[in-house]
Amino acid sequence: MELGQEILFFFSALGVFNGFIISIYLLLFKKSKTPTSYFFGLLLLVLSIRIVKSIFLYFYLDLPLIYIQIGLSACFMIGPSLYYFTKSALIEPEKTPVVWKRTYWGWFLAIVLFGITFPYQNNPHVWKYLCPQLIYVQWSVFVILSGWQLRGLFAKLFNSTEKLSETEKSLLSIFIGVLIIHIAFVLSIMGAFKGMYISGALFFSFILYLNIPLFINRKKSNTVFLVDQDEKRYVNKKILDEYALPLTEKLERIITEQELYKNPDLKLGDLAKKMNISTHQLSQLLNDNLGKSFTVYINEYRIEEACQLMVREHAIKLEAIGYEVGFNSKSTFYAAFKKHKNTTPKGYKEQLSAS
Hints:
The protein is mainly α. It has helices at residues 3-29, 35-59, 65-76, 78-91, 98-117, 124-149, 151-157, 166-189, 195-210, 241-258, 268-275, 279-289, 294-312, 318-324, 330-341, 345-354. The protein folds into two domains: 3-232, Rhopdopsin 7-helix transmembrane proteins; 241-354, Homeodomain-like (Arc Repressor Mutant, subunit A). It is built from 16 helices and no strands. Helix 2 runs antiparallel to helix 9. The longest helix has 27 residues, at 3-29. Keywords: DNA-binding, Membrane, Transcription, Transcription regulation, Transmembrane, Transmembrane helix.
């Protein structure tokens, strides 16, 4: 290997080595694991596996077929990893939703079973021609889906009146980095010049070091991203409408179906766990998107239930109604009722009788 090739090999392999180290840290040793760090670790892992295969195949053409198969299989998981990493970074769920796990590991099981059934050694034509086309089509679909999720950030990027936070900049740079790596590999299999194949590995090293602050654990980090004092001004930003609407619908469904408002000890954190999102995100949804505090929002359900009880149960005492719908005292029931209905429970019941 000539000096120029040795330098090229060194810088290509350097990013891969660090990618493996960081992914292992995020997946196994990071104390506060979140869905974001989990899928970011998986994204780095499969990218590193795919790129290390490219590096060795570029410099050593007689690479054993099993390593080529592993590299292509890892490539099959890049798209899903990017998609769920992007999604989790935007909505910040406290736990990974079950449907995400099933879908992600369903893809993984599919490629593993395919590899066992049709190994590269016995089916070289399939892995050399058919699999790359299917894999890169699948990767393209997930890149498009991930980019669509980030459209709000891209709009902000080109809006002079709004500034991206450091977290948002890092998220965009990671997406763009994976996109460029994807384009480099696609062009290489389409027969573009040979340098495109190794350029994907080089750009991986570049984008990895560009985002190195993401991997430095600091006391104030609550996800894989670093949330510092400069970013606190973004805490009160509204959740994007495309994410707020399904969250609001889920919130209403959980509260009504499970009648959680009837629990006088219901806390914001309890409801966030039911929704599988962070307490901060639920608070943000209520305060910034719906314009209501947690107490006001829950009391609305309680008051509506109290009004229905007054219509259905004429003999029940007003104080008993308050306890029935979730208030822990007569005074809080009366105060909340008057605030929402501009009259007392007694006055409302008299209005019902008069009508």
